[in-house]
Amino acid sequence: MTVEGVSAGWLALREPADAAARARDLVDELRRHLPATGDMVIHDLGCGTGSMGRWLAPLLPGPQHWVLHDRDADLLEAATADPPGPAAGGAEVTLETRQSDINGLGCGELGDATLITASALLDMLTADELSGLADLCTAAACPALLTLSVTGRVEFTPADALDRRVAAAFNAHQRRTTPRGALLGPDAPEAAIMEFGRRGGAEAIARSSPWRLGTSDAELIAEWFEGWLWAACEQEPELSSQTDSYKRRRVAEATAGQLEVIVDHADLLVLPPQPRSPR
Question: How far apart are the two ends of the chain, measured CA to CA in Å?
């Protein structure tokens, strides 16, 4: 499941918005499916700088050992420099990193997992890569918390006549064909629910987890918007000549704290099939 590189700076900028957006009620549900005692081993796939661990570890009880997987050595180094805080109740949280392309992981490498996590990953996968991820989670026979997959819905206040056209081009870019195959983009959450459901009755619980960005998020809005527009123009080059004033106007509104944006995402909690009771 090779994913495109991202910068540590971008991940740091979006981390507070990610933390605010993730569906906390799924964590409440997750806790009911974790062992009551003993150390937990949590494998975080495509971990980036480790923001998932910093958010989730303090919400889970008991000793935890996080295994962070990413192909980018610089991001893993940043994750090591900023480890998660203690678990709920003050239990110890330890950390190790493994540099690897998660597409090359064998099922046995996650065999000790109590929980598998990933964030902002599913929409960057192809259908085959999603199938491979589902295989890994199924073989581990543990819950998986997969957060912040884009759904394609973006809402601006104030609205602009070009918003919908740019959004459609961006969503097409998210579904573009790469050397790895066609990316799932906004189709990823629904595809994941179906993919896991085909594996022996695993249950996938979905929740909306939107970024709700306002006056205090000016820098993030401006940075996100420029990347969003760039991807749309790469998908439809003719947009470049039609969006110069749109870009200047939107960036100026964001910088002045006059722009609000909702960027929708979906979180999934996948629960493994329950063993059948003997008759």
Answer: 41
Backbone angles phi, psi at 261, to 5 degrees: -135, 135
Please, which residues have CB within 8 angstroms of residue 179's CB and are 6 or more apart in sequence?
none
Q: Give the pairing of strands 64-70 and 40-45.
A: parallel
Distance between CA atoms of residues 160 and 141, nearest Å: 47
In whole angstroms, give the CA distance from residue 275 to residue 277: 6
DSSP assignment of 44-98: EET-TTTHHHHHHGGGSBS-EEEEEEES-HHHHHHHHHS---PPBTS--EEEEEE
| CA distance linking residue 185 with residue 178, whole number of Å | 12
Q: Find out whether 269 and 26 touch, Cβ atoms under 8 Å.
A: yes
The arithmetic mean of pLDDT across residues 158-164, rounded, is: 97
The single-letter code of the amino acid at 275 is P
User: What are the Cα distances from residue 145, in Å, to 148, 217, 269?
Assistant: 10, 26, 5
Whole-angstrom distance, CA of residue 164 vs CA of residue 229: 12
pLDDT tens-place string over residues 229-259: 999 999 999 999 999 999 999 999 999 999 9
What does the pLDDT look like over 60-71, one tens digit per residue? Answer: 999 999 999 999
